[in-house]
UniProtKB/TrEMBL annotation:
It is a single-pass membrane protein. This is MID49 protein. It comes from the Eukaryota. SMART domains: Mab-21 (SM01265). GO terms for biological process: mitochondrion organization; positive regulation of mitochondrial fission. Residues 156-344 form the Mitochondrial dynamics protein MID51-like C-terminal domain. Residues 81-103 are annotated as: Disordered.
Length: 463
């Protein structure tokens, strides 16, 4: 009786589970489609077999029954693996063709048409043309146009603003020191001389110191304490006939010599403490202030459109020489530096006018390269001009078409001068323009320029 009850309960359970499974399978085709319904039916059959095996009595003494159970389990697993899987649904964003509406029957031939249209047309790939290699001539001209061209506003505003400041300073000196016969201040510098890099931010104020030649004489540089032919001394003469005070410049005498240091110190005090620069700056629409910490006589000017650095140079013209109040560093006083800037500019312009040459263009590029290079910056300015003048004496062709050749020749000449450690001045061969450089600096410059002769692009990299 108990066995019968157990079997009856089992049939009822199986009947209830079967009813649920039948209902699920009946609706599977509507929900999952044909392939999905097939998979679900097989999986349901396997589950049902597993339930039957779990609920049926197990004969532990019959090894054949256990072997049969294992075989049926492997067959069920193989049956599941062999069942074809439903096609994987694609995401809508991955489809390149519109989906067919299930409510609309497919038209014959439409599938073929869709297959043709699903692959998007590829845009023809255009191979980029390789970059054109620029010649050295083109690189030099590009460097000039990119880095050295001064905007028209700055080129016109800078001289105008500097000229106005120069006039204000001139008026102050005449009112403050009427007894000192200063000449008329005038502008100088790369923008006006045309030899250096055309930067509109550096201007020189040249202040002539007018001396009575009967009371003053020049002492050659070789006879000075530094034994340098580029530095001169200005000696007060005939003190027994014309005692101190006969010349308005006697107040700046140290010993018997006109002291450049004493004159610079006096002018520096006036620039810093005596001139009302805020009022002058307000009048000119700018901010002007002197550089207090500098030993040079410098002004910094800030305008809405330009910024200027102005250096004041007292100068003496005697016996056809131009001497600047720019003594060497150290404790040596009374020395005046001979400047060839005016003679250099005049000579280079004269040579260019004679053969329509590009010496000035070459010098601007060279000066720009050296001025911005950490190793070569001490070669900028006057030394480059003298190399070009020396080379012009032996090489007549300076047309713009030969700019690259002349540029390389100047580099080669510089290397040869650095190897000797001597660059003679074009106007005075006794002067060595490399004389104030250290041996280590000369070696570094020579090595850098030696590399640049074979690879000039090293000097033309972007700043």
């Amino acid at each position: 009786m108990a066995e019968f009850t157990r079997q009856r309960g089992k049939r009822e359970d199986d009947s209830g589970l079967g009813s649920v499974l039948d209902l699920l399978l009946a609706n599977a085709r509507l929900v999952l489609g044909v392939s999905g319904a097939a998979v679900l039916a097989i999986a349901t059959l396997v589950v049902k077999r597993l339930i039957d095996r779990a609920t049926s009595p197990r004969d532990d003494d019959d090894p054949k029954a256990e072997q049969k159970t294992l075989e049926e389990s492997w067959q069920d697993l193989a049956l599941i693996k062999a069942t074809p899987k439903p096609p994987k649904k694609q995401r809508r964003e991955d489809l390149s063709a519109p989906l067919l509406s299930p409510a609309r029957p497919a038209v014959p031939g439409e599938a073929h048409k869709l297959k043709v249209c699903t692959a998007p047309l590829e845009t023809p790939r255009v191979e980029p043309s390789p970059p054109r290699c620029l010649t050295l001539q083109e690189k030099l001209l590009s460097h000039y146009s990119s880095w050295l061209a001064v905007p028209k506003v700055q080129a016109s505003l800078t001289p105008q603003l500097a000229g106005s400041i120069c006039t204000q300073l001139q008026n102050f000196l005449r009112s403050k020191c009427p007894e000192l016969p200063f000449g008329s201040l005038f502008l100088s510098g790369p923008l006006l001389d045309g030899l250096g890099a055309l930067s509109a931010d550096h201007i020189h104020f040249m202040l002539p110191v007018v001396l009575d030649t009967t009371l003053w004489s020049l002492i050659p540089g070789e006879d000075t304490v530094v034994r340098n032919p580029q530095y001169w001394m200005i000696k007060r003469t005939d003190l027994e006939y014309f005692p101190r005070g006969s010349s308005p410049w006697d107040r700046f005498i140290v010993g018997q010599y006109l002291s450049s240091n004493a004159l610079n110190e006096s002018l520096h005090k006036m620039l810093v403490a005596s001139i009302n620069w805020p009022a002058i700056g307000s009048l000119l629409g700018s901010v002007i202030y002197p550089v207090v910490a500098s030993q040079d006589l410098k002004l910094e000017v800030k305008h809405d459109q330009v910024e200027l650095s102005i250096t004041l140079f007292p100068m003496v013209e005697m016996e056809g020489r131009v001497l600047l109040s720019a003594p060497p560093e150290g404790l040596v006083e009374n020395l005046w530096l001979e400047s060839f800037a005016r003679a250099e500019a005049l000579k280079v312009r004269e040579l260019d006018a004679g053969d329509s040459g590009a010496r000035q263009l070459c010098l601007r590029i060279l000066d720009s390269v050296c001025r911005s290079h950490p190793t070569l910056h001490k070669l900028s300015g006057s030394p480059l001009a003298h190399v070009v003048l020396h080379l012009s004496a032996t090489t007549p062709d300076w047309a713009e078409e030969s700019l690259a050749d002349r540029f390389l020749q100047v580099l080669e000449e510089l290397v040869s001068y650095l190897e000797k450690g001597v660059l003679p001045s074009y106007f005075n061969h006794k002067i060595n323009l490399l004389g104030e450089l250290l041996e280590e600096e000369i070696d570094e410059m020579g090595f850098m320029l030696y590399r640049a002769v074979s690879e000039p692009e090293l000097l033309l990299k972007d700043k």
